[in-house]
Amino acid sequence: MKVVGYAGSRSAFSKSICLGEKLKTMLREKNIEMELYTARNNVVEECRGCGKCFDEGLCPQDQEDSMEYIRKKILEADLIVLLSPVYLNNVSGAMKTFLDRIGSWVHTLALSGKMGIVVTVTDQSGQEFVSYYLQKLLLQMGCNVVGEYKVVALEELDQEEVIERIVSNIVKAFFDQEQYISTADLENTFQYLKARFVNADMEQYKDESYEIKYWYDSGMAECETFQEVLNLRKLQCRSDVHEV
Fold it and tell me: Which residues form the NADPH-dependent FMN reductase-like domain (predicted)?
């Protein structure tokens, strides 16, 4: 069971990073290893808008900053935790930059077969939109969001209790194998994208377009439902384990 977290904060006094570190410690007590990456300790440059991630399936900037390594770790993970402070009723600039860099995954459902947890931290307001936004993006990348947590720093709140709830949720989600359970929202997302990338008009371009080629090479083009995609991912995961 692999958990990867990203905290979109550069603050030396970041509550989001603090929560992530405590979560990492508590998960270790449950024999679940979590790797935590932060905007403070990693270099993630702003997207230049070149479009190569959509056209060619790669980002040339990955060779220049920390994203190649972080991207690899996320794709290897079973569960992704996004932690963001709320700035001006939105995600932090650092979190938005990170999301821009993985934005092409919304066309390939690259996080299918993975689970997600969203944690937002604010002093007063803005969490409803920020939490919804983060959940929506994970969903559009094929990730089953199994929990959202809102922490209001100015409230009298036992953060240890919040983290214990997150840990309990993660343990249960792994036990129930929720990464392989589809939802109505995931099914709708899959059907919309399949109609866009898998059809007679688009198939002729599969050798020219990374996104169309990915749908065919990954086996998703042959699937009628997203649950079939998850079943395929489960078989692939078992095969990888046996090979190791």
Answer: 1-152
List Cα–Cα distances, 31 to 19, 145, 165, 167, 214, in angstroms: 18, 22, 16, 11, 34
Q: Which two tokens stand for residue 214?
A: 């990915």
Q: What tokens does 230 get?
A: 């998850």
What does the DSSP 8-state code read for residue 47? P
> If you compute the radius of gyration of the chain from its CA atoms, what whole number of angstroms results?
18
- Distance separating alpha carbons of residues 22 and 206, to the nearest angstrom: 45
**In the chain, ranges of CATH 3.40.50.360 domains:** 2-180
Q: How many residues belong to the chain?
A: 244
Q: Report the distance separating Cα 143 and Cα 139, nearest Å.
A: 5
Classify domain 2-180 at the CATH superfamily level.
Answer: Flavodoxin domain (3.40.50.360)
User: Can you tell me whether residue 151 is helix, strand or coil?
Assistant: strand
- Tens of pLDDT along the chain (244 residues) come to 899 999 999 998 899 999 999 999 999 999 999 999 999 999 999 999 999 999 999 999 999 999 999 999 999 999 999 999 999 999 999 999 999 999 999 999 999 999 999 999 998 888 999 999 999 999 999 999 999 999 887 665 567 888 999 999 999 999 999 999 999 999 999 999 999 999 877 777 777 889 999 999 999 999 999 999 999 999 988 666 545 4
